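Posted in: Structural Biology > Protein-Ligand Complexes

Title: Requesting predicted complex, zinc ion in pocket

I'd be grateful if someone could produce the 3D structure tokens for the following input. Sequence and ligand are given below.
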Amino acid sequence: MKRLKLVFITLFYIIALSCNDNSKNIQMKDNSKNPGYSHTDTGKVVLSNEEWKERLSPEVYRIAREKGTERAGSSEYEHSKEIGTYYCAVCGNPLFESDTKFESGCGWPSFYKPVSKSSIIYTPDNSHGMQRTEVMCGRCNSHLGHVFNDGPPPTGLRYCINGVVLDFSKAKEAEKKYNQQPGVDTK
Ligand SMILES: [Zn+2]
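-- Reply #1 --
Done. Output follows.
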């Protein structure tokens, strides 16, 4: 009888542990406070600063709505080679594909081309004694970073983007295709 009890307890722990593992794999960002967030809706999102403050984390709010800049080298996305899409962390608008990402060495995630022309809005930025071009999200007008003319071909552009205002989603299909290529050992 005691043995049976032990088997049940062991089984319980195995099931509990495997459930725990599953929840770890699903890394959905909590956007319950941000109902305008969507990866497919292209309609503009226009809200007051007060409304944004309620919906965004203080860190995202500071960069996206107050044109802040994250510390150089602080983004987990800077050196990431994962295959997928980078979305606006404020509204979910698709901004950059991972195959346009490159190592610029500037301290921020860098891309040479946005997903589409309408993904990004450009505006002159003459602050801090520099003449730069600011890039903003085409859907919600959030500040993302700047674009420079020293990028690689084919565009020659370097979109220098704050990782805090990016949401990354891994492309499951792309990953599968890559693993099925001859010469890629998945065992
Ligand atoms: Zn946006």
